[in-house]
Amino acid sequence: MSILVIAEHDNNNLKASTLNTVTAASQLGGDVSLLVAGCNIEGVINESQTIDGVSKIIKCDNEIYKNFIAEDLSALVMEIADQHTHILAPATTFGKNLMPRVAAKIDSQQVSDIISVEADDTYKRPIYAGSCIATVKSNDDIKVITVRSTAFDAAGMSNSGVQVEELQGTDSLGISSFVSEELAKSDRPELTSANIVISGGRGMQSGDNFHLLDSIADKLGAAVGASRAAVDAGFVPNDYQVGQTGKIVAPDLYIAVGISGAIQHLAGMKDSKVIVAINKDEDAPIFQVADYGLVADLFTALPELESSI
Amino acid sequence: MKILVPIKRVVDYNVKVRPLSDNSDVDLNNVKMAVNPFCEIALEEAVRLKESGQASEVVAVSVGKSESQEQLRTALALGADRATLVESDSVLEPLAISKVLKKVVEDENPDLIILGKQAIDGDNNQTGQMLAALLDYPQATNASEVKLDSTNVEVTREIDGGLQTLKLNVPAIITTDLRLNEPRYASLPNIMKAKKKELNVIPLADLGLDTTSRTELLSVELPPSREAGVMVESVDELMDKLKNEAKVIQ
Ligand SMILES: Cc1cc2nc3c(=O)[nH]c(=O)nc-3n(C[C@H](O)[C@H](O)[C@H](O)COP(=O)(O)OP(=O)(O)OC[C@H]3O[C@@H](n4cnc5c(N)ncnc54)[C@H](O)[C@@H]3O)c2cc1C
Ligand SMILES: Nc1ncnc2c1ncn2[C@@H]1O[C@H](COP(=O)(O)O)[C@@H](O)[C@H]1O
Asked: How far A220 CA sits from the closest chain B CA (Å)?
């Protein structure tokens, strides 16, 4: 078996999700190669060479891949696809955008968002917003898989000197082009890899009130998230959304404030180790998944919480 | 400009789906079905482009059981001009569905195909990208804004770190995110009018495609349930539990 992992990175650093995906790949049993495609990626290559469980790095440094356009990147993956039995990427917006394009090109039915490896051809994955867990066996020759990063530990980084092979890029298809990007800047940890997440919902009432969460997050070294209702109301940007259609998080501690606990929200956070809910409605469904529930008005509870840390 | 909108019949998003007692599949007996929410957003975007004079025709298409005609009627009531059902009794996987949709595209020659980013049953998030690959069309997934001109479409996408804008040659494939628009409700007169609109049914077998499943569903189970938690009376008690019982805060 020969496994290919597509690295997610920003041309400077690896994304943590790549490390979780390598762990899933290692559980399949077999050699794991890591494809790192981008532009001016020396730093990413150096980092990649330290990942435990990776036996080869395939490097493609080319202007064309700078913005990870799926049309071009899938064409590159196609060049080496048939040398592998499995192709994996994280189930982030990067992997979700790219992998089905690869899968269709090699006539393989992708298995999305796996949460466990049962055998080299059998995986578990959530369906219906995580209401059920399906066990799925793939009969395709080359298995295309996206990996839910919160379900796998990060691979260690104590390796050294993993061999690097260079791959020539293909020409750009020229059917789509990058225009611009607006990336949120934050000094806080990334939502999907933070140890503590504190999220606000519609109950926060305004974007300004999110400062109540910000100051607690700063004290705890936590990331700040939100429900869809809070994002839709414009309180916070879209990349804060936790849930079925937002980000999946599983921190050691998740604090839900003014969030009712709709199934679509729970889908994104119910695998957290410890869940705290603060809500003024004692019947809010969020309390059914909370380890610790506090029925209180958030506008009195949050300042108290901040001063007690 | 012609726009094709693939629509999927799925369980209503309020239904909590459970496994069958023999764990062979999910239990969909007597549950409420609806248009997949992301497909409603796709349709709304297409209808708005038509209403603003940028598109001339909106065609809805679904692949599925005969009952999917209900969802196509809804699409017609929401503003689609006509609809096609490719009827299949078996449940198809995204790869097979994209092969069917490719045939429909070759037949209809739309300039734009707008799909949902994911169907909330299997949560696969594959079909749009697969269709784009099969057709060699450009793609923009997770769209939160769509701007059209005659040869290009500019799409802003929701990505993990924020927003990204791409320019695609037409014909192109777009998949919708939740914030692209807020779908309208069908009015009674439009529901009545929809009954007279054209709804064409094609048996899957007529397309001569190999749509056999590539994966096997071995079992469906409930996720591990969480132990019931406790209610605390005050912030102080909460902090005490987090520090000394759960030990997640120093
Ligand atoms: C296809 C689809 C996908 C979706 N995907 C997602 C997703 O990914 N993520 C997501 O979150 N949602 C998602 N949703 C939306 C979801 O169904 C809910 O509508 C949403 O999660 C509700 O957000 P909320 O809990 O903040 O708001 P509400 O349900 O309105 O709850 C607000 C809560 O705040 C409490 N509250 C109000 N004021 C105070 C106060 N002063 N002090 C304390 N508590 C207070 C109230 O008691 C209430 O429980 C999706 C929906 C659909 C249809
Ligand atoms: N059976 C189907 N018929 C028509 N469109 C579909 C079907 N299945 C999926 N789609 C389209 O593909 C999108 C993504 O679905 P999925 O890849 O299953 O998550 C949906 O929002 C629809 O627009």
From this structure: 8
